[in-house]
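pipeline: protein-struct stage 2 | run 1193 | Pancreatic lipase-related protein 2-like
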Amino acid sequence: MLIFLACSAFAEPINRNGRNAGTNDYFLYTRRNRATAQTLVIDNVNSITTSNFDAKCSTIVAIHGWVDDSHSEFNQAIKNAYLEKNDVNIIMVDWSPLSQGSYTAAVSGVPKVGRDLGQFISFLTTTTGASLDNVHLIGFSLGAHVAGNAGRALGGKVARITGLDPAGPLWAGNSNCLKASDAVYVEVIHSDGSLVGLGIPYAVGDVDFFPNGGTGQPGCSDMFCNHNRAWELFAATVTFNNLVANQCANMIQVATNSCRGQQLHMGNDQLNKRGSGLYRVNTKAKYPF
């Protein structure tokens, strides 16, 4: 969840459980440990080799947003959708010592959180022989920009990044914003991109989906519901791959629901997915939408 406060001053990041501010934690879930996480530690080979991490499986990295942690509803929805469908490695990134400070401080810290994640993934692949071709970064709100910075640190070689309503406040013109070059394929779902919304209202990926126009969602009465709908929609598509969008020539077509171009499924778990351009899909108000 992201709640934008037009505040100003940077607050000191919370130092929880004695950790250094800005330090990420990495929690692994697999079908062999769905309920209880295994902690993976950078530069600690033993933490990797004694875990259930399987280099032959796809690795899904979930990155929460502001004021959240790795136990957020977003994280649980992603974990449950993927593990019900496939045997995969789910890694939850917890950057809550910084994300639970002020919004401005969290925004400022995103590049380092992303770089640290990139270094961790590099260590993980070196240790296990896993390939970046099998890595999918999924970030919600500020977590989408963290994913972009992690992908950038890895030379844009990660197979896929999915940005779920990337945070908008303080990101216009920000060079640390999620970009199409941050992975082999970058897909973005915009669900709250109005002028007063919490998400970025313009295209930043290879493919940018604007469900229901990208500003207000069926069944939602406030911006928080609209914002969260991005990950709710994505989790449903991992399970059902049920939301098919039409390509739009421009944002006017997106806004007026007049997109008649080629079709492309929004979301899903395909690592080799490809596409480009703007797309609109109309959804229902309730799961699976």
